[in-house]
Design a protein that fits this description.
Distance between the termini of chain A: 33 Å
Largest sheet of chain A: 7 strands, mixed
Helix content of chain B: under 10%
Strand content of chain B: over 45%
Oligomer: heterodimer
Number of helices of chain B: 0
Distance between the termini of chain B: 41 Å
Radius of gyration of chain B: 13 Å
Largest sheet of chain B: 6 strands, mixed
Number of helices of chain A: 0
Number of strands of chain A: 11
Strand content of chain A: over 45%
Shape of chain B: globular
Structural class of chain B: mainly beta
Chain lengths: ~110, ~110
C-alpha cells in the first residue's frame, strides 16, 4: 500500500480481555517495528521483524505481549489479559531495511477500562 | 547499553528565531541518526537524517550536525514559523536496524 496501515485506530477494552492490533506495512518493506507511546511520552521499542523473524523482541514488557508476522507482510501484536497500564498508542513502522528511516502508521489508541 | 538522551524537554522560541535541540548517544558504534517531527495527534514523520560518515546535512531551514568524537548530534531550525510547533524526537541506530529514540522536545513557536 501507499503507507503503513494500522487497525483498529481506536480500541476500548475491559481489563482482563485480550486484544489484537494489526499492522499492514508498505509493500516491499522487509523490516517492521512496533513501538508504544504513552500519553505525552516518548517512543518505547517493543519488537522488530526482519521478514517473518523477530531478531529483537527485548522490548516486550511481559509475557502477556506477543507478536507475529506472516508472509513477510502483515503483523499482529497481541496483548493478553490487558491491564490499565497497557493503555497507550501502539505505533507500527516499516522500512526497506538497513540505515534508512522508518515510515510510521497512524497508530492504535488502546484504552483499558 | 543503548541510550539516547535529548535536551531540552521543552523549548519556546520567538517566531523567526532559531531553535536547537541536542542529543547524546551511548554507543560509539552508532551509525545512523534520524530526526522525527510529531504534530499533536499525528504520527511521527522523518524530517532529516544523517549518517556517521557525514558531519552536517542541511535541508532548507533545518540542519543536523554530528560530532562522533563527543557522541552528540543536534537539530537546528532557522527562521522558525508557527507550523514548526511540534514534538521532535532524535534517534540512533546501534549497529542494527532498530532505532532507539530520545525522550522528545516539545517546541513551541511564539507568534
Amino acid at each position: 500500500g501507499a503507507g503503513v496501515s494500522q487497525s483498529p485506530s481506536n480500541k476500548v477494552t475491559e481489563k482482563g480481555k485480550d486484544v489484537e492490533l494489526r499492522c499492514d506495512p508498505i509493500s516491499g518493506h522487509t523490516a517492521l517495528y512496533w513501538y508504544r507511546q504513552s500519553l505525552g511520552q516518548g517512543l518505547e521499542f517493543l519488537i522488530y521483524f526482519q521478514g517473518n523473524s523477530a531478531p529483537d523482541k527485548s522490548g516486550l514488557p511481559s509475557d502477556r505481549f506477543s507478536a507475529e508476522r506472516t508472509g513477510g507482510s502483515v503483523s499482529t501484536l497481541t496483548i493478553q489479559r490487558t491491564q490499565q497500564e497497557d493503555s497507550a498508542v501502539y505505533l507500527c513502522a516499516s522500512s526497506s531495511g538497513g540505515l534508512v528511516g522508518y515510515t510510521f502508521g497512524s497508530g492504535t489508541r488502546l484504552t483499558v477500562v | 547499553g543503548e541510550n539516547v538522551e535529548q535536551h531540552p524537554s521543552t523549548l519556546s522560541v520567538q517566531e523567526g528565531d532559531s531553535a536547537v535541540i541536542k542529543c547524546t548517544y551511548s554507543d560509539s558504534a552508532s551509525n545512523y541518526f534520524p530526526w522525527y517531527k510529531q504534530e499533536l495527534g499525528k504520527r511521527p514523520q522523518l524530517i532529516i537524517d544523517i549518517r556517521s560518515n557525514v558531519g552536517e546535512k542541511k535541508d532548507q531551514r533545518i540542519a543536523v550536525t554530528l560530532n562522533k568524537t563527543a557522541k552528540h548530534f543536534s537539530l537546528h531550525i532557522t527562521e522558525t514559523q508557527p507550523e514548526d510547533s511540534a514534538v521532535y524526537f532524535c534517534a540512533a541506530s546501534f549497529g542494527n536496524e532498530k532505532l532507539t529514540f530520545g525522550t522528545g522536545t516539545r517546541l513551541t513557536i511564539i507568534p
